[in-house]
Amino acid sequence: MRDRVPLPGTESQPLCIGSTVLDHLYFSSGKTHLIKHPCEKNLALYLGRHIFLTKDNFESSLIPFSIPTSMQVGTPEVTSAHFAGSVLLLVVNQKVYVYDYEANLWTASTGIEHPVSHVSGDNCCYSGNSFCMDISNSVFAYLHGDQISQANIYFSNSRGYRFQKYAELVGTLGGIFSFHSLSQVGLLLVDKQMAMFSYSDHPLNSSFGLPFDYDRAFDILIAPGQKGILIFWFEKNLLVSRNSGQLVESVQVREGHRILYNSILKANITIHSVAANENELAVLTQENNLYYGSLGIQSRSLIKFSDQNIWSQEAVLMFTDVGILEILTPLPDVIFPAFDFQKCLLNIQALLMDPQLQAGICKVELLQGEFENKMYTIDMNSQLELTALMIPRPGTLPVPLVMVSNPHSLGLQAVIYEDGYTYDGNTKHRLNISLKQQHHWGRANPNFTSSIKRPTISTITLDIANKEISCVDLKPLTALISVGCDLEKKIVIQKKRGGGCVDIWAPGGAHPCLCPVSHREAYDPNFQGQQAKEDLKVYYPYEKLGCPLLAYYDIPWKPVVELWREGKFQEVVEAEYVLLEMNGLFTYTYSLTAGMAGCSAQPQNWTTITDTASFSWDRENYMSCHDPDHHEPLRWPDVPYQILGGPTENKVVFDQRNGIYIFFISIVDPHYSYCHLETTFSVYVYGAFPLSIFPPEITIVLLTVATLLSVWLAYMIPQLLHTEQGHEVNSFWVRLYQRCRKSCACLWGSSPRHVVRSSASP
């Protein structure tokens, strides 16, 4: 049997359940922690001398959490834990293990080659959105306190099952986090009792967050809801950030409107447990004190409740609802190995009624909106309209505030319009909020935002300015905004509005599937414009494409592209797009060259795209030749310009060939939509005469000579017939004709009376 490190004050013994031998897990820190799953409200993990996992919010008795001995963890010491979607991640003895609590399965993570102490991540509770699922799948693993020059940081996009090396960095590591509300990865750098955040992407990667005091290692709690709220704490201090670490501030302690201490550090208390939900913060101290505060837009202070006998070494705080706080304490059973949990229920609103607290009266009676706790999508060039209702207390004039959590990445701006009206004697205020990316409103410097091409998320919060702490039930209204692809959008090639859809087959008849043969000199299966070695029979998918568009071969042509959403026409697409003939036909070109299109750099084409081993040409790899940041010089201005739409009048020019073309179309403009808008359609090209066998120059010369000769003969023959030689020639032809008639009459057995004799003299 392996040696085991005993728990503080106890002996660590293996637990046998059936045929499975389990090792009791324990939390290495002397503090107690509670980790609640932000989406599954009844799921939580208690970390202390014993570890407990509950699925019913500690309503039932629990056996201490254990790991199978077969996992060979060695010392069952837990240093960090994190819920990643439907699994629980635990760092046990400097290795990461995955526990699927639904299937009751343990798995050791792969890809981590060095010791780690912490895992960090976030969760998104809107399961119907793919971008939201990516948030829950993203996890970091690292060794806290390492020199960053020697640190090994690992990243997983599979909920912790598989990790890979993230980056080589420089500095001292205080933690690494995925700030989805800022579209950044944040690295906490610690140097000489000061700390600051470094960020991964433009524009924040060119600067740091403001430095703050870091004389002790902080536990960092990310408040749920993707608002970018961070809570830093250790026994003697408490800090908060509302913008993912860009600005970290001390938390004040006040009584009524009077500030007692500018920071917890000066209050001379010892913090034992911290709990937070989307809007509230609570602190339990070893001095039997309970502190409470709001995580509103402008709030950064706590209020102290009256002294109560509520603290114990094993106690931990947990919010179960808005304004409802529980103090949990595990109690061992003297007979059974299970633990029960003592619950001390606190109603914050009732506690604030104590006049000694001078909490004041909330100035707002009602704040509600249909968008609360919902998720919306804003695509490029789209706008979102939200409404809310506010009823102020009579005689007050509260000021509503709206905050967007992700301005750097999105350039997303919220504009609030307020109008009031009276109903049933109460003044009501209707709040109208318009959301749109500043990039498309023309109100933002492009350097302010990160890559506008990249989809991301944001959180919008509607709150009241300088809201009283007594407004416990008046929680801010929050919605999650996915700035990305609107899945209801699609593109359609216009067939009726001037597009000319013509059924080339017999009306009412069966539609054949086999199109004319593509000759070897007209197509290339490798899409490189080289002649094939054999002809190709192309089957036409009529059920999918319907009847083709009609285009005359000698007129430059381009399709009319329409944007549709939820079955309704939106607009004609003017953005840039590209075409590719699906069967490799190359008997067409473009009306413009790179030089004629005004390119300042060499434009992309299908050849360069396929040379990069990426056969997909879309918004993610498109680079405009008109972009001043595109530094590739224009070396071949005479090559065909293969991009349609946008600022040019480029069109398709067909060769002298009749037949059906099946085109794939892809919108490549990165500023039109986050969606990959693409489809296929067909075109029937008509009106082309067969190509001449001889060169046209020879044909023209022969026709001219033949015409002149005919004119000359028409003039000379009548003149020659009146000469002696002309009469001899005429007589020759008459005699030849008579002989032929006689021979034919004998051959056919005709009567002599049927023979017409010539009146000419022999």
Automatic annotation (TrEMBL):
CATSPERD/E C-terminal domain location: 517-725
* Chain segments annotated as transmembrane: 698-717
Q: Which UniProt keywords apply?
A: Cell membrane, Cell projection, Cilium, Developmental protein, Differentiation, Disulfide bond, Flagellum, Glycoprotein, Membrane, Signal, Spermatogenesis, Transmembrane, Transmembrane helix
**What positions does the domain CATSPERD Ig-like occupy?**
364-483
Q: Which GO terms describe its biological process?
A: flagellated sperm motility; sperm capacitation
Subcellular location(s) per record: Cell projection, Cilium, Flagellum membrane
Q: Which PANTHER family match?
A: CATION CHANNEL SPERM-ASSOCIATED AUXILIARY SUBUNIT DELTA, CATION CHANNEL SPERM-ASSOCIATED PROTEIN SUBUNIT DELTA-RELATED
Which family is it part of?
Answer: Belongs to the CATSPERD family.
Return the protein name: Cation channel sperm-associated auxiliary subunit delta
